[in-house]
Amino acid sequence: MTAKERLKAYLDYKKITQIAFAESIGASTGYVNAMSKGFGPKYEAIVREKYPDLNIGWVITGDGDMLSTAAHQVGVAIKADTESVVMIDFIPVHASASFVESICDEKECAFEKMPVIPLNGEKLDSSYKIFEVSGDSMVPTINDGALILAKEINEAQWAYAEGVVVVVFNEMVVIKRMAENRIFDSNMIVLSSDNEKYGKMQIELSNIRAIYKAKRKISENIF
Questions:
Q1: Fewer CB near the terminus (10 Å): N or C of the chain?
Q2: Taking 90 as the threshold, does the pLDDT of residue 77 lie above it?
Q3: Model confidence at 115, in pLDDT bands (50, 70, 90)?
């Protein structure tokens, strides 16, 4: 069976039409028939929110069971959590230039939004953004195409930023690990990649437009 055929089997089991499914995730009515290997990062996160009992891995690879074990275990709890879904700005790779421009010009820029369920007491608000990762510089921690939920760090706290961060500087948006935070003594930061074949980059404080703390992965491609 293909991914499309497995999804159709799930929809038949749930007695959901293909058109109703597509509309529920904000896709075109022919979305199911146009599927190839999977949902893609944009729709996969939405499907996870809307259909918590569907085993996404099974749809993509055929491994495991059609229904998610986790969904059966938590039962009503998942349904209750979905009622608190928050729509968060989604910054795909192709929109990164517009995102940089909106920060530099200190103006609002309209971006597509994606649904996120708060976890562990998160208070999701406009300071959070979802960034799409491009490339393999953070492999094996974060794969190409992953969606990362990140929270903006107040400029007064930049000197304390650590761990995996999203840094907006000059005309770029990068997701790296804070190797050295030297804002206090040298007005600069040093970022590194988790992939050993990439080196480090040094960024002067004057070139930084924003720093976000990467909180967790929303979705990630399966290899």
A1: C
A2: no
A3: confident
Structure tokens at 140: 């094996």
Strand partners, 219: 147
Closest CA to 118 of 164, 89, 87: 87
Which of 219, 130, 137, 210 shows the shortest CA–CA distance to 175? 137
Q: Is 82 left (phi over 0), alpha (psi -120 to 50) or beta?
A: alpha
- C-alpha 218/C-alpha 132 separation (Å) is 10
Residue range 86-219 in CATH 2.60.40.2380:
no
The secondary structure element, H or E, covering residue 132 is strand 128-132
CA distance 68 to 127: 32
Check: CB of residue 64 under 8 Å from CB of residue 57. yes
Q: Which helix (H) or strand (E) holds 198?
A: none
